[in-house]
Amino acid sequence: MAPTIKHRxxxxxxxxxxxxxADGSAQAQSSYARERDALLKELxxxxxxxxxxxxxxxxxxxxxxxxxxxxxxxxVPASYGALAYANQPLPIGHGQxxxxxxxxxxxxxxxxxxxxxxxxxxxxxxxxxxAVLAELVLRVxxxxxxxxxxxxxxxxxxxxxxxxxxxRIGDGYSGWPEHAPFDAIIVTAAxxxxxxxxxxxxxxxxxxxxxxxxxxxxxxLQVILKRADGTVSAQRSLPxxxxxxxxxx
Length: 249
Ligand code: SAH
Hints:
By secondary structure, this protein is α/β, with parallel strands linked by helices. It has one domain: Vaccinia Virus protein VP39 (Rossmann fold), CATH 3.40.50.150. It is about 30% helix and about 25% strand. It has six helices and ten strands. The chain has helices at about 25-55, 60-70, 100-110, 130-135, 145-160, 195-200; strands at about 5, 90-95, 95-100, 120, 140-145, 165-170, 180-185, 200-210, 220-225, 230-240. The strands form two sheets. The chain has an eight-stranded mixed beta sheet with strand order 1-10-9-8-7-4-5-6. A hairpin with a 2-residue loop joins β2 and β3 (about 95-100). S-adenosyl-L-homocysteine binds near residues 96, 125, 126, 144 and 189. S-adenosyl-L-homocysteine binds next to β3, α4 and β5.
């Protein structure tokens, strides 16, 4: 199961000469830069194509700059280096996936983040989405339930110098009350209903983006808005496919 959107571009892969160069050499770096440029163009085109459904025919310049900056090749397993900038989800081990770049950009854009914001992510996975968020806001808190996945992401984010991300191993269903309330919450695993604790931990005026749907059913990306009086509204966005939000102890 992979976070993805049903769209013709899902089958599009960028298989270039980088295949043999999935390393840190200067040659590989410049090849990655070319592939990243191509990916950014594809994100622009896809935002335009899906704009009527998402309400976002163009992603903000800030979001696109973050997508341009974060080295996705550092977040995919070395064996997938050739596909690091392909617009598709990839396996990261333990049955989990790094989301499709378009979905990362869309979910980030839908959060309408400000530079001073504090964001909670449920489902750290590879750490890629957390890194994109960290480029845009003051502080990111991210929770991952699978211990080795969480440890790997935490070490990688530290190595890459993301000092404004704090990670934790645990069940994100209950959120992270010690750091609440959050300006925005992003859930990168699918669940039939919005976990009540996450609504409670969202600031009035805050936004949550979450894929809602039971396992095996069509899931829809939803944008949840919490009004000043604490009531919430939900807007349905695109059909997506995410791994399920599992429950711990
Ligand atoms: N955001 C990730 C992709 C996430 S895939 C990225 O950028 O790579 C979904 C992740 O959510 C998986 O790693 C899975 O283990 C994790 N997950 C599932 N249920 C969870 C829960 N209850 N709490 C925290 N993490 C959970």
